[in-house]
Amino acid sequence: MENPQHPGWYLFDYGMVISTAPEPEDWEALEESAGLPLRNPDSSYWAHRLDYDEGKIDSQQYWSLVLGREVGIGRASELDSLDALQWSHLNLDTLDVLELLYSRGARLAVLSNMPATMAEEFAGAPWTKYFTELFFSSGIGLTKPEPGVFKHVLEALGTDPADVIFIDDKHENVHSARALGIKAIHHAPGTDLQRELGL
């Protein structure tokens, strides 16, 4: 049965909302494979991430830029698998909320900045069963907080902004969504999401 208090959509970010932050050992495994320190915000991993998330470059191009040398398909695939693994740890509290909403017949969707290779890695993962729609930046060609991302989702869902509750961990994404009339919640890891949503 659908939740009568919110007949529209719940739109969830993935990283740091559905998933938790990578563990230190995850970064260590990726860094060992790459032969470079990658976890710092000014690293080559992040410097080229926007283009990768938007689908402007493919896996080989991205990892070639990250490593500073050309890599083959196999090497890129290995790094992609390690990268997906470190972002695969799920937030159990969020899963409880998803289970509750799902049991009530709520309409659930995901909107995440994510490269196509990672989206493919997660295809069919158990957490995807809760969602009717999955939107990834690499398939849209834009990343949050660009307004066009949210406009794309609203059009695809066929719904008004006021009928969407968006949950994201980044202030800039929440601000952009609110500017379009979407009910957006800034979710800080460790806070009670069920209480934030008034469930």
TrEMBL record:
Q: Mind telling me which InterPro entries this protein's record contains?
A: HAD-like_sf, HAD-SF_hydro_IA, HAD_sf
Q: Which Gene3D superfamilies match?
A: HAD superfamily/HAD-like
Q: Which Pfam families match?
A: Hydrolase
Domain of life where this protein originates: Bacteria
Which NCBIfam families does the record cross-reference, listed alphabetically? HAD-SF-IA-v1, HAD-SF-IA-v3
Q: Which protein is depicted?
A: HAD family phosphatase
Q: Which organism is it from?
A: Arthrobacter hankyongi
